[in-house]
Amino acid sequence: MATNLSKLKSGKGAPPPAEEAEDVIEANPREDDKAPLRPLQVRVPEAVFVEFSEQAGREFDFTHGAKKQLFLKMWKAYKAQNMKG
User: Fold this and answer.
1) Which of 34, 46, 54, 84 is the most buried (most CB within 10 A)?
2) 53 CB neighbour count, 10 Å cutoff
């Protein structure tokens, strides 16, 4: 059985040329990308983990790193509250 390669030559469905593609390295939206990271591991009851995960997903659209973003948001609010006065 012969393979029909005519569809490959048409360019239909071909990826865009490299010069038109967004440079994902340049457009990296992560903050403090150069700062060294350290793991923070805690054990909490499963119900707390589930609630925290759901809240992180609601606030940060269930994206990768949502729990980290929620923790950093909470930490920033905690520091702001405790630095007053």
Assistant:
1) 54
2) 14
